[in-house]
Amino acid sequence: MTAQLTCRRADIDDVATLAGLYEDVVRWMGDHGIDQWKSGAKDERHFARVIGSAAAEVWLAYDGSGALGAYELWWSDEQAWGARPPVAGYVHRLMTRPGAPAGTGRALLRDAEHRIAAAGRELSRLDVMVTSPRLRTYYEEAGYAVVGELADKLAADGTPYGVLLMERPLGQGGQGGQEGLGG
Q1: pTM score, two decimals?
Q2: Residue 96 phi, psi (nearest 5)
């Protein structure tokens, strides 16, 4: 990756940027046949709620040209994973602005893994919709393995959908490299 990224924890002043980034990614996914997110499903209120939560964080990556990506890092995810001991961090809404330099998404994922390991946790977990084979492959290529399936995860509107549960052991030292990231 050629861009020098800096990650910082998002704050309430970033909710419009995050909601706009989400919508940009939704459009890009739709244009590329990826069934994962729906337009309007995560607005400024959603990001304000996560930013204000003690159980989650939102991280924003930027370079000299502006915001290039973001992700949510949750410290539990009972809806998808059930009650579990605190051994993992859960990556949600890994977003890379369309047109960002190649490798930006992978650098954001590694940043999340670094933060999970720094918190003393052993696993990075996430889920992808069963209807998103390209995302499954993306995460498998990043070292994640499918460890389960949940057929009836509920969307905010109560609609059930299926997800694959994926995780990556972080091991000694926690993660891969931190190329291009600071913060």
Answers
A1: 0.88
A2: -125, 125
